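Researcher: I'd like a structural prediction for the single chain below. Treat it as a standalone chain; there are no partners to consider.
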Amino acid sequence: MSRITIINGPNLNLLGIREKSIYGDQDFTTFLAALRDAYPAVALSYFQSNHEGAIIDKIHEVGFATEGIILNAGAYTHTSLAIADAIAAVTAPVVEVHISNVYARESYRHHSYLAKNCKGVICGFGLDGYRLALESLLTR
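Model: Treating it as a single chain, here is the predicted structure.
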């Protein structure tokens, strides 16, 4: 059984409530249950934090023991050298995911400090980006 960890960063605990025109109206708990049902042979673990250090700690914790990490670091994508360094330090491949198309948004969202240390980046496909990231990790 493949082990994949999904890590969501700040404000993603508000999915389904927050800025529905950008992030949609589905909460992540419901989406995650459907994703688990669609991939019963994958042990999907999930972690969300609004705190940079907690995200780094989780990357360290799972980054040597899982087959992959799907990471939506939220705004930390555009600010955190520390999360980029954590990704570089672990052996698990990381796929960076964004629900919205960050390149169609404010210019400060166009740069990712994380991308250079990730297997790839998926953005603009809504919550389906997580499924696409999962598929990419399963077919590596």
